[in-house]
Amino acid sequence: MKKYISAILVPCLLMQLLSGCTSFSRISTDDFTHEYIHNKDRSSLEILTIDSTLYKIEHKSYSLLTDTLFAEGQVIDKNNRSEQFKGKIPLKSIKSIYKNSPNYFFIPVIIVIFAVAIIGIIYLGWFLSGKPNLTNL
Question: In 3-state terms, what secondary structure has residue 84?
């Protein structure tokens, strides 16, 4: 039974590690326009406007034209009501921008730690089960 549980949990954990290592970082509107123009980075965004409206915009579903952001996503107002949004947001009305980007450093580190832990557990289980006979070498 333990084998079946681990056969399900290990791939699920790996999938969570690979898809869950992201971080939100706050960027200014000037940095956002610079990254948009030069890097063509299309990470998902959370935009808070001056009137406390929150826009959640998925990656690659927005474009920037001079001083206006054209976007498609979800809008959440002051009363926590959520609805779909497709329209434009003037850059001068944006209070803060949070960019969701993958954390490329921690993904390989976590995978290596996870692999070493699994190998250690397997070796420890093999060693404690009495299989190795090191006295007859």
Answer: strand
Quick: pLDDT tens for 43-79.
788 888 988 889 998 877 888 888 888 889 998 887 8
Contacts 24+ apart (CB under 8 A), 41-44: 41/99, 41/101, 43/99, 43/100, 43/101, 44/99, 44/100
pTM exceeds 0.85? no
- Which residues share a beta bridge with 72? 86
The helix/strand/coil state of 17 is helix
| Beta strands 44-49; 54-65: pairing state | antiparallel
| Architecture category of domain 23-101 in CATH | Roll (2.30)
